[in-house]
Design goal:
Blueprint: E1 2-3, H1 6-20, E2 28-29, H2 35-48, E3 54-57, H3 75-97, E4 101-106, H4 129-150, E5 156-162, H5 176-184, H6 192-195, H7 197-204, E6 215-217, E7 220-222, H8 231-245
Parallel strand pairs: 1-2, 3-4, 4-5, 5-6
Antiparallel strand pairs: 6-7
């Protein structure tokens, strides 16, 4: 488990071991808002692990006040997209050697909220919390589609998904009224257990390889937005992401 908060990670590790009886649960420090942390984590994994069969890119920052990552990226884009982009890049050779393997990118229906602002990808000229979040989730879906095409024939499949509206602390940055509304309408939302099901489906369900690059919701294929299917814009996003991170990934 790659976690930013090691204290909370240890609590989760204990719960998992108690529930499953599996004591082989390992925690490693990873802060996706800091490329130094991402590189340090990847270096450890590449040294310690013989294979990575499933990578789940699940970190998320949602509609937070404007702030920047350690590297100067707008926080939502930096964590939700660029952090996962760099992590996947650094682990990709190991993942390829582990094939059959899967990369799962947890996106959101929020990807339909907006388009990409390629001329102001870091929201430096103007910032809207919802649009910035939607842009980061759109980037998730585009990344999964582009990566799937790149990995054709390697035995590595890639999927993106909408987990549903989940009762989690992802809502912590929202106005108190919104947080209250989420609790009131909790009957229409998902528990964390329910919210994890589509992620698990994409990670382990057999026979999905032919749908690599696809977008899923409620454990079934779903339709992504027209903007998410724009291959030309996706290629521009890929190039901008590489330039921002200082990597070469063709």
């Amino acid at each position: 488990m790659a976690c930013r908060d090691l204290e909370r990670a240890e609590e989760a590790r204990t719960d998992i071991m108690e529930d499953t009886g599996n004591e082989n649960v390992v925690i490693r420090k990873l802060d996706l808002s800091d490329t130094k942390s991402i590189r340090a984590f990847a270096e450890i994994i590449n040294k310690e692990e013989k294979q990575v069969n499933i990578l789940i890119n699940n970190a998320g920052v949602m509609m937070c006040p404007y702030s920047k990552t350690a590297d100067g990226f707008e926080m939502q884009l930096g964590v939700n997209h660029l952090g996962h982009f760099l992590l996947t890049y650094l682990l990709l050779d190991l993942i390829k050697r582990s094939a059959a393997a899967r990369i799962v990118v947890v996106a959101s229906v929020a990807h339909t909220w907006t388009g990409l602002r390629l001329d102001d990808i870091n929201s430096e000229r103007s910032y809207d919390t919802m649009k910035a979040y939607g842009q980061s989730k759109l980037a998730n879906v585009m990344f999964a589609r582009s990566l799937a095409k790149q990995l054709q024939g390697t035995g590595v499949s890639v999927f993106s998904l909408h987990p549903g509206v989940v009762q989690s602390d992802l809502w912590r940055h929202q106005h108190q009224c919104i947080q209250v509304a989420v609790k009131i309408f909790s009957i229409f939302t998902k528990t964390t257990l329910e919210g994890a099901q589509t992620t698990i489906f994409c990670a382990v369900e057999s026979g999905l390889e032919s749908q690599s690059g696809g977008y899923f919701s409620d454990c079934a294929p779903a339709r992504c937005s027209r903007a998410a299917s724009d291959d030309e814009t996706a290629q521009k996003l890929w190039e901008i992401s590489c330039n921002l991170l200082g990597i070469t990934w063709q």
